[in-house]
Description:
heterodimer; A: alpha+beta; Ubiquitin-like (UB roll); 5-stranded mixed beta sheet; 3 helices; 21% strand; globular; B: alpha+beta; CATH 1.10.630.10; 3-stranded antiparallel beta sheet; 16 helices; 12 strands
Amino acid sequence: MAKITFIEHTGKAHTVEIAVGKSVMQAAVDNNVPGIDADCGGECACATCHVYVEPEWLSKTGLPEAGSQEASMLSFAAVTQTDSRLSCQITMTPELDGLVVRMPEGQH
Amino acid sequence: MNAPVNFDPAIHAASIPLDQIDVSDPNLFVTDTYYPYFERLRREDPVHYRKGGLYGDFWSVTKFKDIMTVETHPEIYSSDAKKGGISITDRPMEFRRSSFISMDPPRHDEQRKVVSPIVAPANLQNMSGIIRDRVCRVLDGLPRNETFDWVERVSIELTTLMLTTLFGFPEEDRAKLTFWSDCATQDVNAGGIVDSEQKRLEILSEALRVFTGMWHERAAKPPGFDLISMLAHGEATRNLVNDPAEFLGNLTLLIVGGNDTTRNSMSGGLWALCKNPDEYKKLYANPALVTSAVPEIIRWQSPIVHMRRTAVADAELGGKQIKKGDKVVMWYISGNRDEDSIDRPNEFIVDRARPRHHLSFGFGVHRCVGNRLAEMQLIILWEEILKRFPMIELVEEPKRLYSNFIHGITEMKVRIPG
């Protein structure tokens, strides 16, 4: 198991646990963390599980590859930043134990 | 598939040869009898080829997961207007108008990004007040103990007013927007005013004229927060007005997308709740459920029946060989009833666990840009209905649109006990 902390736009934090190998999005959905909608269910097809990765974790999560489906879908999300990711595309590893991500104002 | 009096669609759907099933027949949607045909395709032949159908030769993709595969592979399944576009109807080449919904990446991406800020979270918050004021005004003006048409009094009125805000269009001329929206999608065989593509173009040319005037006026002013100003000032679209066919294509996309779809969810939602009175009671007792009831309404209505793609390469889909050039139709209305992806799909449940896991907005790069605005309008509508009406009676079954593209309700007589 690995820990992830989701911080809502309002600042409220939720720390949850998820099995290694599952996605960050799944951790939010399984634990009813508000602010991650995940309409498509993890197919990288809706951009409603958008998160900002905290700076100290960016080197471990990486950023979407240019031209990838994730980069394409993210480009349609509102209020993206240079640290934006789709959380369904981040798979938990032991190295990501303790990961902290922030959520945008809204998903669409 | 015209229906005689004792016609049983379930028996018919089960007994005709598989290769004779033609789910593109608009009569199936007028009579609300499409369910068993799609149910059989999902079970027996989920990626189904129909040769010589009413709308030509085409593949029907009927299951949720296969639809998702098509949606997420635009490099194989093209939306390009010149290749065939997004609807099962093959319009003659001279009547095919490009817009960002009927383009592939990267051009699609550039144009879409120009208009998407209008539905960014902060702007939705800005619009919520004006939407609520209108909803309250419309609901407070409804008669009691008297039969009236919900479509005309509520659904059309609210969605057309929304369009006037999005476009910065004069409210007093709003009936024109409804008219153009209906004409843009009307099936030429529906028996309506649009009986040919030429006639459609004539009517929409008036829309083009009006919006071209608005464009020039707004291009000369600093950028404003309406769709026309955004297009006129957007880097990827600032010359759009010089390409009248593509300008008109984008206008009709935004008018239809921002109007017809939500209109029919406003009608279809009330229909669903009237048909499922226990769910209405559940919602009335706990109005906080509107946030899950609304996506369930949108799944149940499936306001867009299908989207079409054209294969630009050979591909395998659900065990079938799709050939380059084939017409591939994703039937959202069927995928939304797929028991392998949705729990108890044939039940209308206002408190589903994952209500947004439906296909009504599409997925992938063409996913509905206004999906959260649509939800917000419906949430506000239902919040205000629940404050006022413990029940609304369905006086007679709704009248439905002759279309295999827009899942439309044209009239729905209801009565509010007073």
